[in-house]
Amino acid sequence: MLGNDDKVTLDRIVRKSEKHIWVALRLLSPESTGEKTDASLRVRPSILLQKCTIMWEPSLKILGSSSDYVQSNISRYFSDPQYYFQVNDQYVRNKLKVVLFPFLHRGHWTRITEPVGGRLSYKPPIYDINAPDLYIPFMAFGTYVVLAGFSLGRHGKFSPEALNWLFIKGLLGWLVQVIILKVTFLLGSGEAPLLDLVAYAGYTFTGLCLAVLGRIMWNYSYYFLMLWTCVCMGVFLVKTMKRVLFAEVRSYDSSKHHYLLLFIALAQFPVFTWLGNVSVNWLI
């Protein structure tokens, strides 16, 4: 409950506020109201709005340019996530063939462009077999975790904690692949959206699923399948990086980029060996 002194103070505050509001309304009132006020104190709302617009125009321009800059950089490095999920059954089948059997791919490796809004843009995966997608990497990653857990179960080592470690190990392997591709682009003075790199790195799990499945069915087939999928992934990334992504580099240094492509191919062996070694200890 409020005391008498508090009520008096509150009443004074309300009265002062009403007085200030009344003065403001009188200053903004047009001449047609007929009130006798000093002409120098009367300001038309249109004039006041015009002055405020002129005063804030430079700031609005700065904010507008900053917003355009941020939006352009976001679209440049992250793209539209929905773009990477525009797939169908035919694309998935053909993409798996390209990733697992790149030697049989007789078409080109260049992405198809189309004019959109006055500029060239890449066609979505459903219309271009060379476009990256995130549907296959996510499905392959989930399948890899399930198959790895099933492999541990066959040896009596399965546990919920082990499945969690396999999940973390897969994410770390995916991150390592992204870092490898990103470092390659930085050294090669190239640029690519981050989600493109995430998609290309995620295709690693398609080959790993095949290798882990081979270990479950026949233990000795694992080594052949691991070597095959590792080589195929290296060839796929080299072909893709060379034809699709390095095409954006303005100054092409042949010898330097060849070494970078060789680095991508050789880096697949330790990554595949680490991820393919399904065990409770995820560090090895």
Topology:
Blueprint: H1 4-28, H2 45-77, H3 89-100, E1 113-116, E2 119-122, H4 135-154, H5 160-187, H6 194-202, H7 204-217, H8 221-245, H9 254-276
Antiparallel strand pairs: 1-2
Helix pairs in contact: 4-5, 4-6, 4-7, 5-6, 5-9, 7-8, 8-9
Number of helices: 9
Distance between the termini: 69 Å
Please state the structural category: mainly alpha
Pick out the low-confidence regions.
35-43, 65-77
Classify the beta-strand content into a percent band.
Answer: under 5%
Overall shape: it is: globular
Q: So what's the oligomer here?
A: single chain
Biggest sheet: strands, sense, closure?
2 strands, antiparallel
H/E topology pattern = HHHEEHHHHHH
- Which strand order spans the largest sheet, edge to edge or round the barrel? 1-2
Radius of gyration: 32 Å
Average of the residue pLDDT scores = 78
User: How many β-strands, per DSSP?
Assistant: 2
What percentage of residues falls in helices of 4 or more residues? 55-70%
